Amino acid sequence: MQKQSHENVILELTVRNHPGVMTHVCGLFARRAFNVEGILCLPIQGSDQSRIWLLVNDDQRLEQMISQIDKLEDVAKVVRKPVRSHHVQ
């Protein structure tokens, strides 16, 4: 059996900034055995929100993961972006 390779994509999440929000997001990935290649989280200046960037594999489960992330109480927005066009802002 040949292993399929998948491109990486970035999920940009806007979340409420409070202790435990990263645990909720990462726990969702862990429970579904979905690997996260990289994580960056920064507070949004002048706001009670943070932005989380997740580098993940673009495989057949990703759309379902995005749907599940969007249902989390602390997540205000999820945007899927290709790696090549993304700059941290």
UniProtKB/TrEMBL annotation:
Name of the protein in its database record: Acetolactate synthase isozyme 1 small subunit
Annotated family: Belongs to the acetolactate synthase small subunit family.
Tree of life domain: Bacteria
The reaction(s) this protein catalyses: 2 pyruvate + H(+) = (2S)-2-acetolactate + CO2
Oligomeric and partner information: Dimer of large and small chains.
Record carries keyword Amino-acid biosynthesis: yes
Domain (ACT) ranges: 10-83
Native source species: Salmonella enterica subsp. arizonae
Biological process according to GO: isoleucine biosynthetic process; L-valine biosynthetic process
Pfam families named among the record's database cross-references: ACT_AHAS_ss
Enzyme Commission code: 2.2.1.6
GO MF annotations, alphabetized: acetolactate synthase activity; acetolactate synthase regulator activity
Pathway named in the protein's UniProt entry: Amino-acid biosynthesis; L-isoleucine biosynthesis; L-isoleucine from 2-oxobutanoate: step 1/4; Amino-acid biosynthesis; L-valine biosynthesis; L-valine from pyruvate: step 1/4
UniProt keywords, alphabetically: Amino-acid biosynthesis, Branched-chain amino acid biosynthesis, Transferase
GO cellular component terms given for this protein: cytosol
